[in-house]
């Protein structure tokens, strides 16, 4: 089937919606997404939930360790574990 | 047989981010938070034999961490610490008293209630992240919380960009469902 330049599938819409949460969707992609949201209930629901999740995470100011910080912790723990095994 | 088992080899992978988020909201300093977590793990290793298995490993680690955070505040609120703060504020006669103004609350400051809600929300988010498969959790945290760009994550985890978006999609769907059930309702 020939791909439409304006109308997108539900899966494509979800993919664009995910990218939009990280500011990685282009203006044209967003326009196509908006069009799909207008007539597709599934896309509309997904987009609403996805946006709500992004807002929740942003407002919670949740934080996590960077890879190198986590590695440092892991190394310290392993060092202590091996010390314990030797005893 | 105890309800919960202990396995220190999984501590960093399974609980370090949860413990970090718990600590950073209370001490507000990345370095100190990491030190406290490291101390918690070491204390956990030493007292592992006392683990009865009645509480989960995470609850047990949190109870150790709470003590560490209290100890940290005790230390910085010791007489020596207070004296240092007073000396700083009263050294310069011209600016004496300015500290009173500095202590006036800022309208843009978060209230204790806001901080508490954020902290609880953070806990709920981590509870849901813990239910995701490890790879989804890792990619999600790197992309959403640490704000790494797509290329960096792909390089670090040796995956393609389309792979990353599939993983992100699955993680977001799982998280949205979990948050809907446990937080929004």
From TrEMBL, chain A:
It comes from the Bacteria. This is Glycine dehydrogenase. It comes from Winogradskyella arenosi. The lineage of its organism: Bacteria, Pseudomonadati, Bacteroidota, Flavobacteriia, Flavobacteriales.
UniProtKB/TrEMBL annotation, chain B:
It comes from the Bacteria. Residues 123-172 form the RNA polymerase sigma factor 70 region 4 type domain. Residues 12-75 form the RNA polymerase sigma-70 region domain. Keywords: DNA-binding, Sigma factor, Transcription, Transcription regulation. NCBIfam families: sigma70-ECF (TIGR02937). Belongs to the sigma-70 factor family. ECF subfamily. This is RNA polymerase sigma-70 factor (ECF subfamily). The lineage of its organism: Bacteria, Pseudomonadati, Bacteroidota, Flavobacteriia, Flavobacteriales.
């Amino acid at each position: 089937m020939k791909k439409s330049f304006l109308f997108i599938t539900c899966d494509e819409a979800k993919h664009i919606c995910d990218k939009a949460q990280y500011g990685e969707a282009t203006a044209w992609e967003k326009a196509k997404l908006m069009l799909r949201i207008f007539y597709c209930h599934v896309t509309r629901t997904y987009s609403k939930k996805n946006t709500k999740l992004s807002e929740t995470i942003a407002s919670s100011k949740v934080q996590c360790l960077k890879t190198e910080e986590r590695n440092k912790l892991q190394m310290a723990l392993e060092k202590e574990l091996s010390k314990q095994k030797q005893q | 047989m105890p309800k919960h088992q202990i396995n220190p080899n999984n501590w960093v992978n399974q609980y370090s981010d949860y413990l970090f988020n718990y600590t950073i909201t209370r001490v507000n300093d990345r370095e100190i938070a990491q030190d406290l977590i490291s101390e918690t793990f070491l204390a956990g290793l030493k007292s592992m034999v006392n683990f009865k298995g009645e509480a989960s490993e995470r609850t047990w680690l949190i109870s150790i961490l709470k003590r560490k955070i209290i100890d940290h505040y005790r230390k910085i609120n010791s007489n020596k610490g207070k004296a240092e703060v007073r000396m700083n504020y009263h050294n310069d006669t011209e600016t004496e008293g300015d500290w009173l103004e500095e202590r006036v609350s800022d309208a843009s400051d978060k209230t204790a209630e806001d901080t508490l809600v954020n902290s609880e929300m953070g806990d709920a988010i981590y509870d849901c992240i813990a239910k995701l498969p490890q790879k989804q959790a890792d990619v999600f945290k790197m992309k959403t919380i640490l704000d790494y760009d797509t290329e960096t994550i792909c390089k670090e985890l040796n995956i393609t960009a389309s792979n990353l978006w599939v993983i992100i999609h699955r993680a977001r769907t799982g998280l949205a469902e979990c948050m809907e059930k446990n937080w929004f309702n």
